[in-house]
Design a protein that fits this description.
By secondary structure, this protein is mainly α. It has 4 helices and no strands.
């Protein structure tokens, strides 16, 4: 019984990871690694700061990995994956927009402070 289940599992793993392997699967793995890199970036930044931090690079990895995963999901015609990555991309891009606006406003405040009479 256990030997039969193990044989089935090994057979299934072979089909999933060997027989189905093609350039699209490689593309999907690269996309997933890029998407996962955002968590590594966030973790390292938080450890360095000794508090929870979400650096800008987190959102850029989110956009890059999410966009690649969306392309992969569209190719695979997976509606759940397409919807999830599509919605995520909107959120990631919005966060980048908020970060850029905050930086622009901070630069304008700094410039105004430098030009103010002492």
């Amino acid at each position: 019984m256990i030997a039969e289940l193990l044989a089935r599992l090994v057979g299934w793993l072979h089909v999933v990871f060997v027989e189905q392997f093609d350039l699209w699967v490689l593309f999907g793995f690269i996309a997933q690694v890029m998407f996962m890199a955002r968590f590594l970036v966030q973790w390292i930044a938080s450890e360095r700061a000794r508090r929870s931090v979400v650096p800008s690079a987190f959102w850029f990895f989110s956009v890059a990995g999410g966009a690649l995963l969306l392309v992969y999901a569209i190719y695979r015609e997976d509606p759940v994956f397409i919807l999830g990555q599509g919605a995520g991309l909107f959120i990631y891009l919005r966060n980048i927009s908020l970060i850029r606006r905050e930086r622009r406003e901070a630069a304008e405040r700094a410039e105004a402070a430098m030009g103010a009479p002492q």
